[in-house]
DNA sequence: TCTTAAGCTGTTTTT
DNA sequence: CAGCTTAAGA
């Protein structure tokens, strides 16, 4: 059976499969059958070389990719395939850390903090250190810390490295190192690791415990890394160490598709791989089987402008296919309408399914306009990523209960649930308890169980009740399976009742979401593949799941997602929307030449998802943060060789001057253009003689200045009891109704 | 301590 | 715009 597959491979593919020993690097262009090669290679190892599946470790980028590969191998060689180690870096090494964590002083039931938890923790640390949270923004600080961890810089190294300190000093953030230190200490106290810790601590484990390293080196005789261009130093060193004994390391990647630098991915890993392994065997897969010539050439024409890349020549034998179609819309809403209409028509004309279409965008917020348009035409769609199910408040709340029952030291979980539902324990009490734990250097749980010594009577009683509840949950969790325990926790905690009583639409949704979480747990328990049916096991399972890993692809839907999450997928028809300067390429990324190159690679990834036809679209105006902005076409549109492009005339003519009225059902209305303002007008520096004045005698006709909105003229004043409303026309922001911020107004005349 | 409402602020991508 | 924080009143 394997032989059939071997003969179906082209020569370089075959080489890649058959070269099983020693270091191998496969440079795989887009659509070159990479996954196929990888799966056949693994099947070949097991089948032809009689390698025990337990000895093969494959690291992929997403859980989805891992599952898909597993299924494919299973089809090739049967159930044996299940025994290979396959998963993301994070999930595989989290699994290993569950076993080995005690060696690092962590309990095996450590919690994994997602970035929301991390940010929240940083926020409280910044507050405790009495630092300005506008200077030390959680996002910025976290990415700084994360960057350090990805490069294996511990907080000890960080605060002693003169270069890093100088860097922070220059950025006017000299105390990031201290925050890093406190952050790590708090994580440790909470028995928690963040995403980066999973890899960082694996490195520490392998560094400090040669016996353990050796154990895994012996176990994994073959190591394979997919999407190698997206590994960071921390990940790279792990694989290098694991493969050090047997040297059977096979990495697969495409430098042209490296799009995760912001997460610490280092393209040098792939560019310099040869230096680390002088006897490296390199295979290039350059034939594209996926896309038409026009699409391949378009992608090539953009990527050719990048300076730093490995030489390769991606080509295809496929037909020319249709030209790339360029669509121009008046607004983001019309862009959505054009895309939706095109899908509708193409679907009917060519007898396609919804699932043959994908809409790709640079930022998640762009999905709005697309959704609305699709909904109006009754086209089923599904959004991948964005606010994931597990990030919703109600889900996080219930999960926080689960987490806290399993790990009593989980501070972030504690803060979420201690007073939700309301039980009369306010912020003051919570802070007192945390301070007590910190000052006496005792576990949080000890403070909670002895609340009488730290809190006034009423609050202490409430905490005691809370404590009893948690204890009873713990007993249930230990005795029952995940589903029964979870249901009981949801009910007894009062959370379910709280949501049930909320009869608003959002409330109903939240209630349903919680039910859905319980269903997911039921599914987990009923799945015979899961041996450990405890709630703790379920938590571990999903901590590293992302939205796209959920298998809901049974229905026929158009797929909407960011370019980042589209990697590895393919669709017959692909729309890349929002081709506007500052959006794609992103303004934030346009700092240096390297960053522009990464945006080009992003375009490369997006366009090579398409098999048959590629559409590019842009809008002339777009709502962003409640403000309508002017847009300019992306520079990428000029960088593409124009011979591959045709402009969609039919739709572009109909657009001039047609704006839709706010929520009118009538659709197009030929109204005068709404005022278009630039974002720069938003920040106003008050004039030197600005002083907020007593505005008691504010009246219509007054000229005023506001620190944020700038200069304006009062149109009218309305009085409702004690409250006053001022309708003011601001020069840059148009009409505004100020209710309270009178204090910030300054009357000029 | 809880509720309500105004004010403020982000503004990229994800394990 | 939307989600969060803050401030004031109950």
Topology diagram in text:
Blueprint: H1 2-7, H2 11-18, E1 24-28, H3 34-47, E2 56-60, H4 63-77, E3 85-88, H5 89-100, E4 111-113, H6 115-128, H7 138-150, H8 155-158, H9 162-170, H10 176-189, E5 192-194, H11 195-208, H12 210-219, E6 222-225, H13 233-242, E7 249-253, H14 268-271, H15 273-276, E8 281-285, E9 287-288, H16 293-303, E10 315-316, E11 324-331, H17 332-350, E12 357-361, H18 367-376, E13 381-383, H19 393-406, H20 411-417, H21 427-439, H22 444-449, H23 457-479, H24 482-492, H25 495-501, H26 505-526, H27 535-543, E14 558-562, E15 571-576, H28 593-607, E16 610-624, E17 627-630, H29 635-639, E18 645-647, H30 649-653, E19 659-660, E20 668-669, E21 703-706, E22 710-720, E23 723-730, E24 734-738, E25 746-747
Parallel strand pairs: 1-7, 1-8, 2-3, 2-6, 4-5, 6-7, 9-10, 11-16, 11-18, 12-14, 12-15, 13-14, 15-16
Antiparallel strand pairs: 16-17, 19-20, 21-22, 21-25, 22-23, 23-24
The protein binds a DNA duplex (15 and 10 nucleotides) through residues 61-63, 88-91, 114-115, 137, 139, 195-196, 198-199, 259-260, 262-263, 362-365, 368, 385, 419, 422, 424-428, 544, 546, 562-565, 583, 586-589, 602, 623-627, 679, 708, 739-741, 744.
Can you tell me about this structure?
With about 750 residues, the protein is of the alpha/beta class. The chain folds into 5 domains: about 10-100 and about 210-285, 3-Layer(aba) Sandwich (Rossmann fold), CATH 3.40.50.300; about 110-190, Arc Repressor Mutant, subunit A (Orthogonal Bundle), CATH 1.10.10; about 315-390 and about 550-645, 3-Layer(aba) Sandwich (Rossmann fold); about 395-530, PCRA, domain 4 (Orthogonal Bundle); about 700-749. Helices cover about 45% and strands about 15% of the residues. The chain has 30 helices and 25 strands. The strands form 6 sheets. Strands 11, 12, 13, 14, 15, 16, 17 and 18 form an 8-stranded mixed β-sheet that branches. A hairpin with a 3-residue loop joins strand 23 and strand 24 (about 735-740). The longest helix is centred in the middle third of the chain and has 23 residues, at about 455-480. It is globular, with a radius of gyration of 29 Å. The N and C termini lie far apart (about 90 Å). The model is unreliable at about 650-685 (pLDDT under 50). It binds a DNA duplex (15 and 10 nucleotides) through helix 5 and helix 11.
């Amino acid at each position: 059976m394997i032989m059939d597959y071997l003969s179906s491979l082209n020569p370089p593919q075959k080489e890649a499969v058959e070269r099983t020993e020693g270091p191998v690097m496969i440079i795989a262009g887009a659509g070159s059958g990479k996954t196929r090669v990888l799966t056949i290679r693994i099947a070949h190892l097991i089948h032809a070389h009689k390698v025990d599946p337990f000895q093969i470790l494959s690291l992929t980028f997403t859980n989805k990719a891992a599952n898909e590969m597993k299924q494919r191998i299973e089809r090739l060689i049967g159930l044996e395939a299940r025994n290979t180690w396959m998963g993301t870096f994070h999930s595989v090494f989290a699994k290993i850390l569950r076993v080995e964590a005690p060696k690092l002083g962590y309990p095996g039931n450590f919690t994994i903090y997602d970035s929301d938890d991390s940010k929240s923790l940083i926020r409280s640390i910044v507050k405790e250190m009495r630092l300005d949270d506008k200077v030390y923004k959680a996002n910025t600080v976290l990415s700084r810390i994360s960057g350090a961890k990805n490069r294996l810089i511990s907080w000890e190294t960080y605060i002693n490295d003169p270069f890093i300190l100088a860097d922070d000093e220059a950025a006017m953030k000299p105390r990031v190192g201290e925050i890093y230190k406190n952050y790590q200490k708090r994580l440790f106290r909470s028995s928690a690791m963040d995403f980066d810790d999973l890899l960082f601590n694996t490195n520490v484990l392998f560094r400090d415990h040669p016996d353990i390293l050796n154990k895994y080196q012996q176990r994994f005789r073959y190591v394979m890394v997919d999407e190698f261009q997206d590994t960071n130093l921390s990940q790279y060193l792990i694989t290098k160490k694991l493969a050090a004994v047997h040297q059977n390391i096979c990495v697969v990647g495409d430098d042209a598709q490296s799009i995760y630098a912001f997460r610490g991915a280092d393209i040098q890993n792939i560019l310099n791989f040869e230096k680390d392994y002088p006897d490296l065997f390199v295979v290039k897969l350059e034939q594209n089987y996926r896309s038409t010539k026009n699409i391949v050439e378009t992608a090539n024409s953009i990527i050719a402008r990048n300076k730093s890349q490995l030489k390769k020549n991606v080509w295809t034998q496929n037909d020319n296919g249709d030209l790339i179609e360029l669509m121009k819309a008046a607004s983001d809403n019309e862009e959505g309408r054009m895309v939706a209409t095109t899908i509708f028509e193409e679907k009917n004309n060519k007898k396609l399914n919804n699932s043959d279409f994908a809409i790709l965008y640079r930022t998640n917020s762009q999905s709005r306009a697309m959704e609305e348009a699709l909904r109006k035409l009754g086209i089923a769609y599904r959004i991948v990523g964005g606010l994931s199910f597990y990030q919703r408040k109600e889900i996080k709340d219930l999960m926080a209960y689960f987490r806290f029952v399993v790990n009593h030291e989980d501070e972030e979980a504690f803060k979420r649930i201690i007073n939700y539902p309301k039980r009369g324990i306010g912020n003051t009490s919570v802070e007192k308890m945390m301070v007590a734990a910190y000052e006496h250097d005792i576990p949080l749980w000890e403070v909670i169980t002895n609340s009488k010594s730290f809190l006034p009577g009423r609050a202490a009683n409430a905490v005691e009740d809370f404590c009893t509840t948690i204890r009873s949950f713990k007993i249930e969790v230990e005795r029952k399976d995940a589903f029964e325990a979870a249901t009981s926790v949801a009910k007894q905690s009062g959370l379910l009742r709280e949501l049930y009583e909320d009869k608003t639409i959002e409330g109903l949704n939240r209630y349903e979401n919680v039910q859905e979480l319980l269903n997911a747990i039921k599914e987990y328990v009923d799945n015979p593949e899961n041996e450990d049916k405890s709630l703790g096991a379920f938590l571990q399972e999903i901590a590293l799941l992302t939205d796209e890993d959920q298998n809901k692809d049974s229905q026929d839907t158009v797929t909407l997602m960011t370019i980042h999450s589209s990697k590895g997928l393919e669709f017959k028809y692909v729309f890349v929307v929002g081709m506007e300067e500052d959006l794609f390429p992103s303004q934030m990324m346009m700092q240096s030449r390297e960053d522009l190159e990464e945006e080009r690679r992003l375009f490369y990834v997006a366009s090579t998802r398409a098999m048959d036809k590629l559409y590019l679209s842009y809008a002339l105006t777009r709502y962003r943060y409640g403000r309508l902005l002017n847009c300019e076409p992306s520079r990428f549109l000029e960088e593409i060789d124009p011979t591959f492009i045709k402009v969609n005339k039919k739709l572009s003519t109909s657009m001039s001057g047609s704006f839709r009225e706010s929520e009118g059902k009538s659709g197009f209305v030929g109204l005068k253009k709404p005022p278009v303002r630039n974002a720069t007008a938003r920040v106003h520096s008050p004039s030197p003689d600005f002083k907020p004045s007593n505005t008691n005698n504010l009246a219509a006709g007054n000229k005023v200045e506001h620190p944020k909105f700038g200069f304006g003229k009062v149109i009218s004043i309305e009085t409702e009891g004690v409250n006053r409303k001022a309708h003011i026309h601001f020069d840059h922001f148009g009409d505004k109704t100020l209710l309270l911020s009178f204090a910030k107004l300054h009357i000029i005349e």
